[in-house]
Protein backbone atom coordinates (compact mmCIF):
# COMPACT_ATOMS: atom_id res chain seq x y z
CA UNK A 1 0.00 0.00 0.00
CA UNK A 2 1.39 3.42 -1.00
CA UNK A 3 1.01 6.52 1.12
CA UNK A 4 1.58 10.12 0.14
CA UNK A 5 2.05 13.26 2.19
CA UNK A 6 -1.20 15.11 1.78
CA UNK A 7 -3.19 18.15 2.76
CA UNK A 8 -6.26 17.51 4.92
CA UNK A 9 -9.64 18.09 3.32
CA UNK A 10 -13.09 17.85 4.83
CA UNK A 11 -13.78 14.21 4.04
CA UNK A 12 -10.91 12.99 1.89
CA UNK A 13 -7.34 14.07 1.25
CA UNK A 14 -5.76 15.93 -1.61
CA UNK A 15 -2.41 14.53 -2.82
CA UNK A 16 -0.56 17.82 -3.02
CA UNK A 17 2.79 18.46 -1.44
CA UNK A 18 2.73 21.48 0.85
CA UNK A 19 4.56 22.98 3.81
CA UNK A 20 1.29 23.63 5.65
CA UNK A 21 1.11 22.69 9.32
CA UNK A 22 -2.09 20.81 8.52
CA UNK A 23 -0.22 18.09 6.62
CA UNK A 24 -0.96 14.58 7.80
CA UNK A 25 -0.34 11.16 6.35
CA UNK A 26 -3.49 9.57 4.95
CA UNK A 27 -4.10 7.19 2.07
CA UNK A 28 -4.67 8.76 -1.31
CA UNK A 29 -8.24 9.46 -2.35
CA UNK A 30 -9.92 6.39 -3.86
CA UNK A 31 -9.87 6.50 -7.67
CA UNK A 32 -12.93 7.94 -9.34
CA UNK A 33 -14.09 9.89 -6.28
CA UNK A 34 -14.60 13.66 -6.71
CA UNK A 35 -12.10 15.87 -4.95
CA UNK A 36 -13.73 18.35 -2.53
CA UNK A 37 -12.28 21.72 -1.65
CA UNK A 38 -9.04 21.76 0.29
CA UNK A 39 -9.24 22.75 3.94
CA UNK A 40 -7.24 25.91 4.49
CA UNK A 41 -4.69 26.57 7.20
CA UNK A 42 -7.26 28.69 8.99
CA UNK A 43 -9.66 25.79 9.42
CA UNK A 44 -8.58 24.05 12.61
CA UNK A 45 -11.91 22.49 13.53
CA UNK A 46 -11.52 19.24 11.60
CA UNK A 47 -10.81 16.21 13.74
CA UNK A 48 -8.14 15.07 11.25
CA UNK A 49 -6.30 18.37 11.60
CA UNK A 50 -6.47 18.26 15.40
CA UNK A 51 -5.24 14.68 15.69
CA UNK A 52 -2.24 15.41 13.48
CA UNK A 53 -0.66 17.00 16.59
CA UNK A 54 -0.54 13.65 18.46
CA UNK A 55 2.87 11.97 18.42
CA UNK A 56 3.03 8.49 16.90
CA UNK A 57 4.72 6.06 19.34
CA UNK A 58 5.30 3.42 16.64
CA UNK A 59 8.53 2.67 14.82
CA UNK A 60 8.38 4.38 11.40
CA UNK A 61 9.15 1.05 9.74
CA UNK A 62 6.17 -1.15 9.05
CA UNK A 63 3.41 1.34 9.79
CA UNK A 64 0.46 -0.02 7.86
CA UNK A 65 -2.27 2.34 9.02
CA UNK A 66 -2.03 6.12 9.54
CA UNK A 67 -2.16 7.20 13.18
CA UNK A 68 -4.71 9.92 12.41
CA UNK A 69 -7.03 7.39 10.78
CA UNK A 70 -6.93 5.04 13.78
CA UNK A 71 -7.42 7.84 16.31
CA UNK A 72 -10.25 9.40 14.29
CA UNK A 73 -11.93 6.00 14.03
CA UNK A 74 -11.60 5.53 17.79
CA UNK A 75 -13.09 8.95 18.52
CA UNK A 76 -16.02 8.37 16.15
CA UNK A 77 -16.64 4.87 17.50
CA UNK A 78 -16.85 6.05 21.12
CA UNK A 79 -19.05 8.98 20.10
CA UNK A 80 -21.27 6.28 18.59
CA UNK A 81 -21.31 4.35 21.87
CA UNK A 82 -18.36 1.92 21.65
CA UNK A 83 -17.32 1.03 25.21
CA UNK A 84 -14.19 -1.13 24.76
CA UNK A 85 -11.19 -1.44 22.46
CA UNK A 86 -12.83 -4.46 20.80
CA UNK A 87 -16.04 -2.47 20.29
CA UNK A 88 -14.06 0.31 18.60
CA UNK A 89 -12.63 -2.19 16.12
CA UNK A 90 -16.03 -3.78 15.53
CA UNK A 91 -17.64 -0.40 14.85
CA UNK A 92 -15.11 0.31 12.11
CA UNK A 93 -15.16 -3.23 10.72
CA UNK A 94 -18.94 -3.26 10.37
CA UNK A 95 -19.00 -0.06 8.28
CA UNK A 96 -18.96 -0.06 4.48
CA UNK A 97 -15.91 0.83 2.42
CA UNK A 98 -16.99 4.41 1.88
CA UNK A 99 -16.85 4.97 5.64
CA UNK A 100 -13.42 3.32 5.71
CA UNK A 101 -12.19 5.65 3.00
CA UNK A 102 -13.57 8.74 4.71
CA UNK A 103 -11.75 7.77 7.90
CA UNK A 104 -8.49 7.33 6.00
CA UNK A 105 -8.32 3.58 5.35
CA UNK A 106 -8.18 1.90 1.94
CA UNK A 107 -9.40 -1.66 1.34
CA UNK A 108 -8.67 -2.93 4.85
CA UNK A 109 -8.99 -1.79 8.45
CA UNK A 110 -6.85 -2.70 11.47
CA UNK A 111 -7.70 -5.70 13.62
CA UNK A 112 -8.48 -5.38 17.32
CA UNK A 113 -4.95 -6.17 18.52
CA UNK A 114 -3.49 -3.48 16.27
CA UNK A 115 -5.86 -0.84 17.62
CA UNK A 116 -5.28 -1.95 21.19
CA UNK A 117 -1.47 -2.02 20.93
CA UNK A 118 -1.44 1.49 19.54
CA UNK A 119 -3.93 3.12 21.87
CA UNK A 120 -2.32 1.82 25.05
CA UNK A 121 0.91 3.56 23.99
CA UNK A 122 -0.55 6.95 23.13
CA UNK A 123 0.27 9.79 25.55
CA UNK A 124 -3.10 10.10 27.32
CA UNK A 125 -2.51 13.61 28.64
CA UNK A 126 -1.41 14.92 25.24
CA UNK A 127 -4.43 13.29 23.59
CA UNK A 128 -6.71 14.85 26.21
CA UNK A 129 -5.37 18.33 25.48
CA UNK A 130 -5.62 17.88 21.70
CA UNK A 131 -9.23 16.70 21.87
CA UNK A 132 -10.20 19.39 24.40
CA UNK A 133 -8.88 22.08 22.06
CA UNK A 134 -10.73 20.46 19.17
CA UNK A 135 -14.03 20.48 21.04
CA UNK A 136 -13.52 24.07 22.19
CA UNK A 137 -12.82 25.16 18.61
CA UNK A 138 -16.26 23.88 17.61
CA UNK A 139 -18.14 25.98 20.16
CA UNK A 140 -19.30 29.41 19.07
CA UNK A 141 -18.91 31.79 22.06
CA UNK A 142 -22.01 33.70 23.11
CA UNK A 143 -21.51 37.11 24.72
CA UNK A 144 -22.57 36.91 28.35
CA UNK A 145 -25.17 39.28 29.72
CA UNK A 146 -24.45 41.46 32.72
CA UNK A 147 -21.38 43.30 33.92
CA UNK A 148 -19.24 40.27 34.73
CA UNK A 149 -18.83 36.78 33.45
CA UNK A 150 -17.15 33.80 35.03
CA UNK A 151 -15.87 30.53 33.61
CA UNK A 152 -16.51 27.87 36.27
CA UNK A 153 -14.45 24.68 36.17
CA UNK A 154 -15.29 21.75 38.44
CA UNK A 155 -12.40 19.55 39.59
CA UNK A 156 -13.00 16.05 40.90
CA UNK A 157 -11.48 12.58 40.85
CA UNK A 158 -12.95 9.29 39.67
CA UNK A 159 -11.82 5.70 40.06
CA UNK A 160 -12.13 3.47 36.98
CA UNK A 161 -13.16 0.44 38.99
CA UNK A 162 -12.65 -2.15 36.28
CA UNK A 163 -9.14 -0.94 35.40
CA UNK A 164 -5.93 -1.76 37.22
CA UNK A 165 -2.34 -0.56 37.25
CA UNK A 166 0.55 -2.96 36.80
CA UNK A 167 0.76 -3.47 40.58
CA UNK A 168 -2.97 -4.27 40.80
CA UNK A 169 -4.15 -0.93 42.17
CA UNK A 170 -7.19 0.78 40.70
CA UNK A 171 -6.76 3.60 38.20
CA UNK A 172 -7.68 6.99 39.63
CA UNK A 173 -8.21 9.97 37.29
CA UNK A 174 -8.53 13.65 38.19
CA UNK A 175 -10.49 15.79 35.73
CA UNK A 176 -11.26 19.46 35.12
CA UNK A 177 -14.76 19.95 33.70
CA UNK A 178 -15.93 23.19 32.09
CA UNK A 179 -19.46 23.56 33.44
CA UNK A 180 -20.48 26.04 30.71
CA UNK A 181 -19.74 23.70 27.77
CA UNK A 182 -19.59 20.14 29.16
CA UNK A 183 -16.01 19.75 27.91
CA UNK A 184 -13.29 18.08 29.98
CA UNK A 185 -10.40 20.51 29.63
CA UNK A 186 -7.77 18.27 31.24
CA UNK A 187 -7.29 14.90 32.88
CA UNK A 188 -4.36 13.39 34.78
CA UNK A 189 -3.86 9.87 36.08
CA UNK A 190 -2.82 9.44 39.68
CA UNK A 191 -1.87 6.35 41.62
CA UNK A 192 -4.24 6.31 44.59
CA UNK A 193 -6.95 8.48 46.12
CA UNK A 194 -4.62 10.06 48.65
CA UNK A 195 -2.49 11.45 45.83
CA UNK A 196 -5.27 13.58 44.38
CA UNK A 197 -3.95 16.67 46.15
CA UNK A 198 -0.50 16.84 44.46
CA UNK A 199 -2.15 16.02 41.11
CA UNK A 200 -4.00 19.36 41.28
CA UNK A 201 -0.97 21.34 40.07
CA UNK A 202 -0.28 19.36 36.86
CA UNK A 203 -4.02 19.31 36.15
CA UNK A 204 -4.25 23.11 36.36
CA UNK A 205 -1.14 23.40 34.20
CA UNK A 206 -2.94 21.44 31.49
CA UNK A 207 -6.08 23.57 31.85
CA UNK A 208 -3.95 26.68 31.39
CA UNK A 209 -2.38 25.17 28.26
CA UNK A 210 -5.82 24.53 26.78
CA UNK A 211 -7.39 27.88 27.72
CA UNK A 212 -4.27 29.97 27.26
CA UNK A 213 -4.86 31.74 30.57
CA UNK A 214 -6.55 31.17 33.92
CA UNK A 215 -7.30 34.85 34.44
CA UNK A 216 -10.73 35.18 36.06
CA UNK A 217 -11.43 31.43 36.08
CA UNK A 218 -13.18 29.99 39.12
CA UNK A 219 -12.26 26.48 40.25
CA UNK A 220 -14.89 24.69 42.36
CA UNK A 221 -13.87 21.54 44.22
CA UNK A 222 -14.74 19.36 47.18
CA UNK A 223 -13.27 19.57 50.68
CA UNK A 224 -10.21 17.50 49.75
CA UNK A 225 -8.89 20.50 47.82
CA UNK A 226 -9.29 23.04 50.62
CA UNK A 227 -5.52 23.47 50.51
CA UNK A 228 -3.53 26.66 50.95
CA UNK A 229 -1.19 25.54 48.17
CA UNK A 230 -4.11 25.32 45.75
CA UNK A 231 -5.27 28.82 46.67
CA UNK A 232 -1.76 30.21 46.23
CA UNK A 233 -1.36 28.47 42.86
CA UNK A 234 -4.59 29.93 41.49
CA UNK A 235 -3.96 33.41 42.90
CA UNK A 236 -0.62 33.50 41.08
CA UNK A 237 -2.54 33.10 37.80
CA UNK A 238 -5.29 35.58 38.76
CA UNK A 239 -7.75 32.70 39.14
CA UNK A 240 -10.07 31.91 42.06
CA UNK A 241 -10.96 28.97 44.27
CA UNK A 242 -14.26 27.98 45.88
CA UNK A 243 -14.14 24.89 48.08
CA UNK A 244 -16.28 23.09 50.61
CA UNK A 245 -15.01 23.16 54.19
CA UNK A 246 -15.35 19.95 56.19
CA UNK A 247 -13.74 18.19 59.12
CA UNK A 248 -10.55 17.40 57.17
CA UNK A 249 -9.66 21.02 58.02
CA UNK A 250 -10.94 21.09 61.63
CA UNK A 251 -9.61 24.51 62.60
CA UNK A 252 -10.94 26.17 59.46
CA UNK A 253 -14.24 24.31 59.77
CA UNK A 254 -14.71 25.48 63.34
CA UNK A 255 -13.88 29.06 62.31
CA UNK A 256 -16.45 29.08 59.52
CA UNK A 257 -19.11 27.31 61.55
CA UNK A 258 -18.58 29.71 64.46
CA UNK A 259 -19.24 32.86 62.45
CA UNK A 260 -22.36 34.85 63.54
CA UNK A 261 -24.61 33.31 60.89
CA UNK A 262 -27.81 34.05 62.83
CA UNK A 263 -27.17 37.76 62.32
CA UNK A 264 -26.45 37.43 58.58
CA UNK A 265 -29.48 38.10 56.37
CA UNK A 266 -30.51 35.56 53.73
CA UNK A 267 -28.69 36.38 50.53
CA UNK A 268 -30.51 34.06 48.15
CA UNK A 269 -33.10 31.31 48.32
CA UNK A 270 -34.30 28.84 45.71
CA UNK A 271 -37.03 26.22 45.72
CA UNK A 272 -37.06 23.14 43.49
CA UNK A 273 -39.58 20.36 43.06
CA UNK A 274 -39.44 17.16 41.09
CA UNK A 275 -39.39 13.36 41.40
CA UNK A 276 -41.54 13.58 44.51
CA UNK A 277 -39.06 15.86 46.27
CA UNK A 278 -39.23 19.45 47.46
CA UNK A 279 -35.98 21.25 48.19
CA UNK A 280 -35.23 24.71 49.54
CA UNK A 281 -31.69 26.08 49.37
CA UNK A 282 -30.80 29.08 51.49
CA UNK A 283 -27.52 30.92 50.91
CA UNK A 284 -25.82 33.28 53.33
CA UNK A 285 -22.48 34.95 52.64
CA UNK A 286 -20.18 36.89 54.92
CA UNK A 287 -17.09 38.93 54.03
CA UNK A 288 -14.07 37.64 55.95
CA UNK A 289 -11.13 39.40 54.26
CA UNK A 290 -10.47 41.51 57.34
CA UNK A 291 -7.81 41.42 60.08
CA UNK A 292 -8.51 38.35 62.13
CA UNK A 293 -10.52 36.77 59.28
CA UNK A 294 -10.38 33.14 58.23
CA UNK A 295 -7.09 31.30 58.48
CA UNK A 296 -7.20 30.32 54.82
CA UNK A 297 -5.14 31.97 52.12
CA UNK A 298 -6.93 34.46 49.85
CA UNK A 299 -10.34 33.80 51.42
CA UNK A 300 -12.69 36.73 50.76
CA UNK A 301 -16.06 35.26 51.68
CA UNK A 302 -17.43 32.51 53.87
CA UNK A 303 -20.61 30.84 52.64
CA UNK A 304 -23.29 28.80 54.39
CA UNK A 305 -25.80 26.84 52.32
CA UNK A 306 -28.72 25.16 54.08
CA UNK A 307 -30.61 22.51 52.14
CA UNK A 308 -34.05 21.47 53.38
CA UNK A 309 -35.55 18.46 51.59
CA UNK A 310 -38.98 16.93 51.92
CA UNK A 311 -39.40 13.46 50.41
CA UNK A 312 -42.60 11.47 50.98
CA UNK A 313 -43.51 13.64 53.96
CA UNK A 314 -40.09 13.27 55.65
CA UNK A 315 -38.03 16.44 56.02
CA UNK A 316 -34.26 16.53 56.38
CA UNK A 317 -31.81 19.39 56.63
CA UNK A 318 -28.10 19.66 55.99
CA UNK A 319 -25.71 22.58 56.13
CA UNK A 320 -22.63 23.05 53.97
CA UNK A 321 -19.86 25.58 54.56
CA UNK A 322 -17.66 26.95 51.81
CA UNK A 323 -15.06 29.61 51.24
CA UNK A 324 -14.43 31.68 48.14
CA UNK A 325 -11.56 33.91 47.04
CA UNK A 326 -13.98 36.18 45.16
CA UNK A 327 -15.03 39.34 47.01
CA UNK A 328 -18.68 40.25 47.51
CA UNK A 329 -18.54 42.78 44.69
CA UNK A 330 -17.78 40.01 42.20
CA UNK A 331 -19.82 37.17 43.68
CA UNK A 332 -23.36 37.71 44.88
CA UNK A 333 -25.03 35.09 47.12
CA UNK A 334 -27.12 33.88 44.17
CA UNK A 335 -23.91 33.32 42.19
CA UNK A 336 -22.27 31.48 45.08
CA UNK A 337 -25.26 29.16 45.34
CA UNK A 338 -25.19 28.45 41.61
CA UNK A 339 -21.44 27.79 41.63
CA UNK A 340 -21.75 25.42 44.57
CA UNK A 341 -24.25 23.40 42.54
CA UNK A 342 -21.94 23.56 39.51
CA UNK A 343 -19.53 21.30 41.38
CA UNK A 344 -22.13 18.53 41.17
CA UNK A 345 -22.14 18.71 37.38
CA UNK A 346 -18.91 16.78 37.05
CA UNK A 347 -20.54 13.93 38.95
CA UNK A 348 -24.00 14.05 37.39
CA UNK A 349 -23.21 15.09 33.82
CA UNK A 350 -19.83 13.39 33.31
CA UNK A 351 -18.88 10.63 35.74
CA UNK A 352 -22.38 9.16 35.91
CA UNK A 353 -22.63 9.11 32.11
CA UNK A 354 -19.22 7.47 31.76
CA UNK A 355 -20.29 4.76 34.20
CA UNK A 356 -23.87 4.12 33.11
CA UNK A 357 -24.00 4.98 29.41
CA UNK A 358 -20.41 4.22 28.39
CA UNK A 359 -19.90 1.45 31.00
CA UNK A 360 -16.52 2.63 32.22
CA UNK A 361 -16.52 0.64 35.47
CA UNK A 362 -17.17 -2.58 33.54
CA UNK A 363 -14.22 -2.03 31.19
CA UNK A 364 -11.30 -4.11 32.44
CA UNK A 365 -8.35 -2.24 30.96
CA UNK A 366 -5.05 -3.18 32.56
CA UNK A 367 -2.24 -2.35 30.17
CA UNK A 368 -0.16 0.78 29.63
CA UNK A 369 -2.05 4.00 29.11
CA UNK A 370 -5.17 2.14 28.04
CA UNK A 371 -7.46 3.14 30.95
CA UNK A 372 -6.57 6.83 30.73
CA UNK A 373 -6.75 6.90 26.91
CA UNK A 374 -10.19 5.32 26.87
CA UNK A 375 -11.38 7.64 29.63
CA UNK A 376 -10.25 10.53 27.40
CA UNK A 377 -12.27 9.08 24.51
CA UNK A 378 -15.32 8.83 26.78
CA UNK A 379 -14.81 12.43 27.92
CA UNK A 380 -14.65 13.48 24.27
CA UNK A 381 -17.84 11.58 23.46
CA UNK A 382 -19.74 13.25 26.30
CA UNK A 383 -18.29 16.67 25.47
CA UNK A 384 -19.09 16.30 21.77
CA UNK A 385 -22.74 15.48 22.46
CA UNK A 386 -23.04 18.24 25.08
CA UNK A 387 -21.65 20.78 22.60
CA UNK A 388 -24.29 19.59 20.13
CA UNK A 389 -26.98 20.31 22.69
CA UNK A 390 -27.76 16.70 23.63
CA UNK A 391 -29.41 16.16 27.01
CA UNK A 392 -29.72 12.39 26.65
CA UNK A 393 -26.25 11.03 25.87
CA UNK A 394 -27.46 7.44 25.42
CA UNK A 395 -29.91 8.54 22.73
CA UNK A 396 -27.25 10.72 21.08
CA UNK A 397 -24.79 7.83 20.86
CA UNK A 398 -27.43 5.59 19.29
CA UNK A 399 -28.23 8.23 16.69
CA UNK A 400 -24.52 8.64 15.88
CA UNK A 401 -24.17 4.87 15.54
CA UNK A 402 -27.01 4.67 13.02
CA UNK A 403 -25.70 7.59 10.95
CA UNK A 404 -21.94 7.06 10.49
CA UNK A 405 -21.68 9.27 7.39
CA UNK A 406 -23.39 12.16 9.17
CA UNK A 407 -21.06 11.65 12.13
CA UNK A 408 -17.93 11.73 9.98
CA UNK A 409 -19.19 14.79 8.14
CA UNK A 410 -19.84 16.51 11.46
CA UNK A 411 -16.42 15.83 12.97
CA UNK A 412 -14.56 16.84 9.83
CA UNK A 413 -16.50 20.00 9.06
CA UNK A 414 -15.05 23.28 10.12
CA UNK A 415 -18.21 24.94 11.37
CA UNK A 416 -19.20 25.13 15.06
CA UNK A 417 -22.28 23.12 15.89
CA UNK A 418 -24.26 25.18 18.38
CA UNK A 419 -23.79 28.29 20.46
CA UNK A 420 -23.05 26.36 23.63
CA UNK A 421 -20.30 28.27 25.38
CA UNK A 422 -22.25 30.42 27.78
CA UNK A 423 -20.30 31.90 30.62
CA UNK A 424 -21.83 31.97 34.06
CA UNK A 425 -22.95 35.51 34.75
CA UNK A 426 -23.10 37.59 37.83
Output the CATH topology of the largest domain. Transposase Inhibitor Protein From Tn5, Chain A, domain 1
Cα distance, first to last residue?
A: 58 Å
Q: Largest sheet, described in full?
A: 9 strands, mixed
Work out the count of structural domains.
2
Radius of gyration (Å): 24 Å
Task: Assign the CATH architecture of the largest domain.
Answer: Alpha-Beta Complex
Count of DSSP-assigned helices? 13
- Based on Cα principal axes, name the global outline: elongated
Instruction: Quote the beta fraction.
Output: 15-25%
Structural class: alpha+beta
Q: Could you give the count of β-strands?
A: 16
Question: Looking across the biggest beta sheet, what order are the strands in?
Answer: 8-7-6-9-10-14-13-12-11
What is the class of the largest domain in the CATH system?
Alpha Beta
Uncertain parts: 1-43, 416-426
- Give the fraction of residues assigned to helices: 25-40%
* N to C succession of SSEs: EEEHHHHHHEEEEEHEHEHEEEEHHHHEE
Average pLDDT:
82
Notable characteristics:
single chain; 426 residues; alpha+beta; Transposase Inhibitor Protein From Tn5, Chain A, domain 1; 9-stranded mixed β-sheet; 3-stranded antiparallel β-sheet; 16 strands; 34% helix
Amino acid sequence: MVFAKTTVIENWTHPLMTSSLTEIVLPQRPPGMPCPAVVTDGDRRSLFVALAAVDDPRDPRGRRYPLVAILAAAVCAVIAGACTFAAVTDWVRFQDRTVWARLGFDDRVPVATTVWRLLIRIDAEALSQVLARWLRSRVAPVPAAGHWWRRVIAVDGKVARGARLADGRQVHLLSAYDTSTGIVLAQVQIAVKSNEIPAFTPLLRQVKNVLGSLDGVLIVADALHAQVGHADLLAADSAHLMVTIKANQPTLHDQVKGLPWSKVPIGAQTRDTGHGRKETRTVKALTVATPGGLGFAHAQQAVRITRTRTVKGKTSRETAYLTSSLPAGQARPSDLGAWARAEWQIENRLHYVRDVTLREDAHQAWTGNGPAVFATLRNTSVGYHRVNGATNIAEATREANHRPHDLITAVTTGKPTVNSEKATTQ
